[in-house]
Design brief:
Layout: H1 2-14, H2 17-45, H3 49-80, H4 84-119, H5 127-149, H6 153-183, H7 188-220
């Protein structure tokens, strides 16, 4: 708690406009990829090819945002030569935008599978697994972004633990989908698309966990990537 208060006081006293703009841009990018995920899953579950096309077309904007934020971070380092927590924030943002861009890529993949699935007509097979996993993944992403917005390391650490739940739900979905294929070989082609969708959702959960790691890095100055039991 004291670490958080000290960091917030620092932010309030010395956070300049360029750093704050970078953080705001990161939140805007987070909102964009969150919407991409929501729309991609909706396109799958509602067999909405038009919405899937929109997700695919909007992916270029996510890529542009990554480049813009990266450039802003480079300029801040060159001009301001930030130290201590300011530098940690800039480094964390550059790592976070890479994860957000990859989330955007996974949403685009889901949208592409939505297009393939709509060609074979609507079917409930596998969609309950997609809906269930997507709900959990969307929540962990929302919590990760919220912890970044509020510099809340405690929420970030708690959210990281939720990734274990995502992994269990992913394995459960895989078992269900394999069962569908065994029971009805005619469904194999369709279910394979669903398998790729749930794989993308699981990866989005991993990227959300990475965002939480960056929050801890910014607030506490600890790099907890690749540490077991965190």
């Amino acid at each position: 708690m004291m670490d958080k208060l000290k960091f917030e006081n620092h932010i309030a006293s010395v956070f300049d406009e360029e750093l704050e703009e970078i953080r705001n841009d990161l939140m805007a990018m987070g909102g964009q990829v969150e919407q991409q995920l929501t729309d991609a899953v909706q396109a799958i579950c509602e067999a909405d090819s038009q919405l899937a096309e929109q997700v695919i077309q909007r992916d270029h904007r996510v890529d542009e945002m990554e480049l813009e934020i990266d450039e802003a971070c480079v300029l801040v380092i060159a001009r301001r030569q930030p130290a201590a927590s300011d530098l940690r924030l800039v480094v964390a943002v550059t790592r976070a935008v890479a994860d957000l861009e990859r989330i955007g890529d996974e949403a685009k993949k889901i949208a592409k599978h939505a297009l393939e699935l709509t060609e074979s007509g609507p079917s409930p097979m596998g969609y309950s697994e997609v809906r269930h996993l997507a709900q959990s993944v969307s929540q962990i992403l929302r919590n990760a972004l919220d912890s970044f917005a509020r510099f809340d390391a405690d929420t970030a650490l708690a959210t990281m633990q939720e990734d274990k739940k995502i992994d269990m739900e992913y394995k459960t979905a895989l078992r269900e989908l394999v069962t569908y294929m065994m029971e009805d070989p005619r469904s194999i082609s369709r279910v394979i698309n669903i398998l790729w969708v749930v794989r993308s959702l699981e990866r989005i959960g991993d990227h959300a966990k990475n965002l939480c790691e960056q929050v801890v890095f910014v607030v506490k100055g600890k790099d907890i990537r690749h540490r077991n039991g965190q």
